[in-house]
Amino acid sequence: MKGLFNWLNKTKVFRDLSPQEFSWVLYDVGNSAYTMLACSLIPIWFKELAIGTNPGQITGDQATAYYSIAISIVTVIVALLGPVLGALADRKESKKIFFQTTVAAGVIGCVLNSFTWSWMLFLVVYVLTKVFYQASLTFYDSMLNDVTTEERMDEVSSYGYAWGYIGSCIPFLVAMVAYILSGGLSENLMLFSPLVGKIIGFGVTAIWWLLVTLPLIRNYQQKNYVEHTHTSVGQVFKKIFATLKKIAVRDKKVLFFLIAFFLYIDGVGTIIDNCINIGTDLGLPTVGQVVFLLATQVVAWIGSLVFAKLSKRYKTVPLILVCIAGYFAVCLYALTLKTLLHFGILAFGVGCFQGSIQSLSRSYYSKIIPPENSGEYFGIYDIFCKGASFLGSAVIAWVKLAGGTINIAVASLAIFFALGFLFLIISSKQKSLNRASNE
């Protein structure tokens, strides 16, 4: 494995990255595998356990409701814990410890999830695993200030998303083949039991997640930190409230960016969360949708690499504005959706900007916050990020309940991108209190 990492680091794509930058990018490759599994096979495995007429099983509608509740619980827990854990991790030599702990717990939870025998236990283990996974991302995002310079943040952050998209396909394809060979699509293809298929799917994802994380654990050094001045949770909460007050009253650059980010990332998250619903409402074949969604990963990979190169020549804010405008156009294009080809074009448009809008937002935020408090600030950032998509989902639900089509519902999301565009421009014109950033 060490030889593979050394070879990758010498390739044309990665040779410009320092060991710490390269290790940081690899964690995106590792954790994205779990994201792919959570968006695809985990809901299927849950419903296979939950739905039925045997004692303890439930109906399909109940399964969907309970799974949605579980996702909401994860969102609330992470939103509450993020700033606290981030502030604690900002202390000297603490961030690596918190990161290692959450990654280890997440990997263990991923493995254990395959051995759960009831839908309720499956859901509990999934919630705990997802909480540790999301917490690890808070620490990971805040490491960007430590692993690279301000001038290289856009490029390095874009590489993370780019290779995360393409790298996640490797363990996912293994998991998908295992699912198919365990009778997932037809009993005629069953070579082993569904339990074995589930163990392989969770197992290969956990192993990939762990192995690709090891270089960052080995190479990471916390350069920006605060001294151990906050020794109790109560003092940490006081610090967080003071930071929130500072952002609301004095730091208008961060404030308006967070408002803009919440609005446009809400639109991004809503489209991602409802992609299958869009195709289903249009009556499109499921297999075709899955193929296009996998192709979207490749497009997102290429798109992120393109924006990584563009970030060397152009400032961050204009590039984010281009991404927002791209999503705005995608929403309006949804009005024309009728066929699988139209769905594929929509997926292509989303893929062009999906990774870039997230990676550039992460790097821009890193530039306008105090580096020594990056953990705390990224905890606040995650509240806006993890809480996103609920407004957009509410809009889609309202349009559908009012008798509108899915086309109109998706097109309605354009308002989020229009407002996000406006607030980002306002943010860019504010003076930074924390550092002189090249925007």
Structure description:
The protein is mainly α and 439 residues long. It has a single domain (17-428), classed as Growth Hormone, Chain: A. The protein has 20 helices and no strands. The longest helix is centred in the first third of the chain and has 30 residues, at 60-89. The model has no long low-confidence stretch (mean pLDDT 86).
Mean pLDDT: 86
Name the quaternary structure.
Answer: single chain
Task: Give a count of the beta strands, DSSP E runs of length 2 or more.
Answer: 0
In the CATH hierarchy, the architecture is: Up-down Bundle
The radius of gyration is 21 Å
Query: How many distinct folded domains?
Result: 1
The helix count comes to: 20
Secondary-structure-derived class: mainly alpha
Secondary structure topology:
Elements: H1 2-10, H2 19-39, H3 41-50, H4 60-89, H5 95-113, H6 119-142, H7 144-147, H8 153-167, H9 169-181, H10 194-219, H11 233-249, H12 252-273, H13 275-281, H14 286-310, H15 316-333, H16 340-368, H17 374-386, H18 390-401, H19 406-411, H20 414-428
Helix pairs in contact: 2-8, 2-10, 3-4, 3-6, 4-5, 4-6, 4-11, 4-17, 5-6, 5-10, 6-17, 8-14, 8-16, 9-10, 12-16, 12-18, 12-20, 14-16, 15-16, 15-20
